[in-house]
Amino acid sequence: MALTIGMIEVIIEFTLARAAFQLRPVLERSGKIFNRCCGGMFAGIGLALPLVTKSRLVIKIRCG
């Protein structure tokens, strides 16, 4: 079982490293745009988190 987990880990890490190597030229050309998009999504998730958490809390209080 440990060998299976180890082999899966090696395959996943190799695949991620290979994908990163192939995406590197694309990210070098459009890295600033990519960073802004990812930053915007991260900020959006951060802003939405209190709203979702608060609404679920209200639902729990009303139901419970």
Characterization of this structure:
This protein has 64 residues and is mainly alpha-helical. It is 97% helix and 0% strand. The chain contains one helix and no strands. It has one helix spanning 2-63. The longest helix has 62 residues, at 2-63. The protein is flat and about 50 Å long.
> What's the tally of helices?
1
Structural class: mainly alpha
Largest sheet: none
Q: Please give the alpha-carbon distance between the first and last residues.
A: 44 Å
* Contiguous runs where pLDDT drops below 50 for at least 5 residues: none
Number of strands: 0
Query: Which series of helices and strands comes N to C?
Result: H
Q: In percent, how helical is the residue content?
A: over 70%
Morphology call: flat
- Average pLDDT, rounded to a whole number, is 84
Please report which band the strand proportion falls in: under 5%, 5-15%, 15-25%, 25-35%, 35-45% or over 45%: under 5%
Q: Roughly how many Å is the radius of gyration?
A: 20 Å
